[in-house]
Amino acid sequence: MGSRKLLAFDIDGTILDSNKRPLPSTLEALDALRKAGHFVTLATGRSRFLAESVIRELQFENYILCNGAAGFFNHQQVFKETLDQKALTTLIEVCQARGIDTAIVQLDQSKRLSSFDLEKMQDAMTSFGSTASELGGFSHDDEVYQALAYYEKDCDPLFEGQHPAFNFVRWHEKCVDVIPANGSKARTLLALAERLGIDRADIIGFGDGLNDREMLRESGIGVAMGNASLLVQQEADLVTKDHNHDGIWHALKELHLID
């Protein structure tokens, strides 16, 4: 593997362990990749304000946010796809009529639009170290990169296929991300690779969640963490150890990218 690679890492459940910290072996691996001249990027469902601490602490200059709706190269935004305002308004109205809480996510803030079940929202958000956002309104001037809808799996049929402008991606038993129908981390990762002159075969994607499946499938090598579900693992070329047991380091060692 002598050519220059583009390596993309999910945050939660991948680059962070279950204590929401990067393992020492992960930090060592990132440093080795950079010194070898490879490009590294985050690829997360988080928005910028929720990813900011990881971007800063792990010194990422490139990052894909909001499940691919925003892409940054050298801290400059090079990709943007916001949600269709009319379709989003309809979705919010449908959710509110059913007593389902929603929130809108912008790059640097999020706002919940209702308070039907604050405990449910809090449960989902604390799973990755955040909290339910402040109550606010939705303006047509808002640039919304993704939305959140707080409902369990038994409500999936009420939404899947009913809102063609959107894709609903579950990341918690009580919440889904709402992203553009053709949006994904993979789409933006491929755009970043093209910008860098990196062949698709030289993209390596790491992830553990349902929102990582396209990225693992479209990368030259997709690496699923050992803590990923079977649905995610079956999209990968390689399944490594979990996020608590040096999974990133072991995979990079197996791929001969670090010593």
TrEMBL record:
Q: Please identify the protein, giving its name as recorded.
A: Cof-like hydrolase
Q: Which GO terms describe its cellular component?
A: cytosol
Q: Entry's InterPro entries?
A: Cof, HAD-like_sf, HAD-SF_hydro_IIB, HAD_sf
Q: Which GO terms describe its molecular function?
A: magnesium ion binding; phosphatase activity
> What is the scientific name of the source organism?
Enterococcus aquimarinus
Q: Which UniProt keywords apply?
A: Hydrolase
List all membrane-crossing ranges: none
